[in-house]
Amino acid sequence: MKLLRLAPPCSQPLLLFITVSLMFTFSSSSYNVTYDKKSLIIDGHRKLIISAAIHYPRSVPAMWPGVVQLAKEGGADAIETYVFWNGHELSPDNYYFGGRYDLVKFCKIVQQAGMYLILRIGPFVAAEWNFGGVPVWLHYVPGTVFRTDSEPFKHHMQKFMTYIVNLMKQERLFGSQGGPIILAQVENEYGFYENAYGEGGKRYASWAAKMALSQNTGVPWIMCEQFDAPDPVIDTCNSFYCDQFKPINPNKPKIWTENWPGWFKTFGSRDPHRPPEDVAFSVARFFQKGGSLHNYYMYHGGTNFGRTAGGPFITTSYDYDAPIDEYGLARLPKWGHLKELHRAIKLSEHALLNSESTLVSLGHLQEADVYEDASGSCAAFISNMDDKSDKVVEFRNRSYTVPAWSVSILPDCKNVVFNTAKVSSATSEVEMVSSGLQPSPISLVKDLKTQWGVFTEHAGIWGNADLSHNGFVDHINTTKDTTDYLWYTTSFQVNEKEDFLTNGSNAYLLVESKGHALHAFINQKLQASGSGNGTVPPFKFRRPISVKAGMNEIALLSMTVGLQNAGSFYEWIGAGPTSVKIEGLKNGTIDLSSSTWTSKIGLQGEHLRIYKADGIQNVNWTSTSEPPKLQPLTWYKAVIDAPPGNEPVGLDMIHMGKGLAWLNGEEIGRYWPRKSSEHEECVQHCDYRGKFSPNKCSTGCGEPTQRWYHVPRSWFKPSGNVLVIFEEKGGDPTKIRLARRTQKRMS
Ligand SMILES: *[C@@H]1O[C@H](CO)[C@@H](O)[C@H](O)[C@H]1NC(C)=O
Ligand SMILES: *[C@@H]1O[C@H](CO)[C@@H](O)[C@H](O)[C@H]1NC(C)=O
Ligand SMILES: *[C@@H]1O[C@H](CO)[C@@H](O)[C@H](O)[C@H]1NC(C)=O
Ligand SMILES: *[C@@H]1O[C@H](CO)[C@@H](O)[C@H](O)[C@H]1NC(C)=O
Ligand SMILES: *[C@@H]1O[C@H](CO)[C@@H](O)[C@H](O)[C@H]1NC(C)=O
Ligand SMILES: *[C@@H]1O[C@H](CO)[C@@H](O)[C@H](O)[C@H]1NC(C)=O
């Protein structure tokens, strides 16, 4: 590191940066990872680490090398990921590590990039991921209570933890074996919930730490937001700001496991943005106040493919307004601004890690922290926490203008090489450029229109019913999350003497449900839909319906939209209807709540796997170039060509209702162009100054939360791609578009 100080920091930034990067490229010889109160100590050297969270199943193997490399170019030394238990242990002892779940391949890509890896095994992860990452089957192992002193939970948790650790050891991936892993995490943000579990919670937290330590990985363990983490486990911080964080034990380094550079979205919400100036401010403040390891959660958020989104209502996109966008492109200027920040911090590394800070007050809300080490190297961070006014401060006989809510970094205690509020990096214009679906030559008919295959589901029980029950069974207990969909059907009599109006009757349907969404069909016709909103699953509605004299069939299609992923006892929260009534008939209200309801789990098309190559022939698709519009419960398929070029691709579903989509059998995920309320607050220009909260800088009021759905390029063949859509309530498939995500750089 001495080399670095020979040249003045400003003169040759590029060369210096390359030197820094090379120093973090390690050989495959084994090294020790320990720590002291300043930082992690790797092979005897204190290290300052910038880490970038990238979750392997939220992108695809073909994207991994690119996003990892882009994180490295952005100045990251480490990649951080959770391990997604429910993606790996599909049923007890039945493990899966293929495709997007090829954890070892991901780790090796990080290793080949010459980066470190932080493995947050959990195995509970929250993460806006279905059921918080815990397999749904575990909820049905008798006697299991998640995340407390529950024998079956601990048994399966330890078994999985051990399995992953052994896999990593086998592949020589721990630092102690020459691999990239320098840290591992057990549990996740348990401190917030521990009290809710009483003494069992305390015993569990302590057990989890001991169990992790007994794995002998040769690298330290962390527990984030764990206020009683036992020695030698390091407790770490997750927040928008962690400058004030202090580990419970003063001999532990100050680690920030989750700095949220944006936020996630739920269907029906606005689009949150965190300004790059504020992200940079928070990071600079953290290092100013003695932090030594910082991780962006997320650096690349990616996509909740298939039904992996947590919830309820988390969108399929997990873009997170992160420095690398959902599609794998650098988000500018955020990515570039943070890259410059990282360079400035690295220029200060030696002084930061080898001296104690001296605090110098420079005004009411202005202060400098000065790090001067024995060798004479000196770095200073000057901050102005005033959220309105820029300030001129005197520091070491020079004056510095420090913009409001910003930090200036002086790696030589004289020259400002970076200020968090001055964004000078390139910006870009990103566009989704749409084109109609390009029919594959093999699917063309005379009129050159796309030839569609159409298959319509019966509204209600298909095949044999799964169960009949007086009153409502819980939705999740019944599907066990093998599908989003559960039918509840029954029938009711209407008197001949009712007044039947031309457009129906005076009847109303009243539904109350624990969530998450529901479509009501009467006599095969869609009559009403309802859903929870925000993160509140329960809902009720009262809608006019048409009924006929005599027997009427009612079929409710109840849906989950991602299972709860956090909270105490979250696995016990149910879903599905609780009360159904018909009102407004002359004969009075008919309460169907305790009628005999017959149920069917899932859709026929799901059961027959008609979205997969091996199942697509299982139904007779009606072939047409004019597919029905606004028709509920309809499967559509089209054979299309890949869009030209190599830009990332998004499926434009703005003219569709709600459902699921696949390409070549790969799960694109849930689509639902549900709009956010236009009455919420959105901003034209975001004022970066002052404390950030998720709703501070939103856009997209009154617009669909998610219009485009990422379809990874690697899923396309040049020609003959099969797109399959299941539409629940009705849309216009002829208006589905594929859009290329184009990025024009500007300076
Ligand atoms: C790791 O550190 C310990 C304690 O400092 C030391 O005894 C051991 O030799 C080191 N191992 C390696 C591989 O450097
Ligand atoms: C600042 O100026 C004063 C007076 O000229 C001088 O005594 C002091 O050493 C200077 N401080 C620094 C840090 O240069
Ligand atoms: C109407 O109400 C009467 C009296 O409660 C009952 O006997 C009859 O079965 C009801 N008819 C229908 C169609 O619900
Ligand atoms: C959610 O639904 C409730 C009741 O229908 C409504 O009052 C509230 O405004 C909705 N919230 C949002 C964020 O749409
Ligand atoms: C699901 O079933 C279990 C076991 O029968 C029961 O304890 C639990 O209360 C049910 N959950 C809901 C939400 O009904
Ligand atoms: C498709 O239609 C053919 C001819 O009508 C019939 O024999 C076959 O059983 C049908 N297949 C399915 C899966 O419904």
Automatic annotation (TrEMBL):
Catalytic activity, as annotated: Hydrolysis of terminal non-reducing beta-D-galactose residues in beta-D-galactosides
Superkingdom of the organism of origin: Eukaryota
Keyword Zinc: no
Domain Beta-galactosidase galactose-binding: 633-721
GO molecular function: beta-galactosidase activity
GO biological process assignments: carbohydrate metabolic process
PROSITE patterns to which the protein is assigned, alphabetical: GLYCOSYL_HYDROL_F35 (PS01182)
Domain Glycoside hydrolase 35 catalytic: 39-344
InterPro entries hit by this protein: BetaGal_gal-bd, Galactose-bd-like_sf, GH, GHD, Gly_Hdrlase_35_cat, Glyco_hydro_35_CS, Glycoside_Hdrlase_35
Tagged with keyword Lyase: no
A GO CC term attached to the entry: apoplast
Gene3D superfamilies referenced in this protein's UniProt entry, alphabetically: Galactose-binding domain-like, Glycosidases
Domain Beta-galactosidase beta-sandwich: 367-423
Family: Belongs to the glycosyl hydrolase 35 family.
The protein, known as: Beta-galactosidase
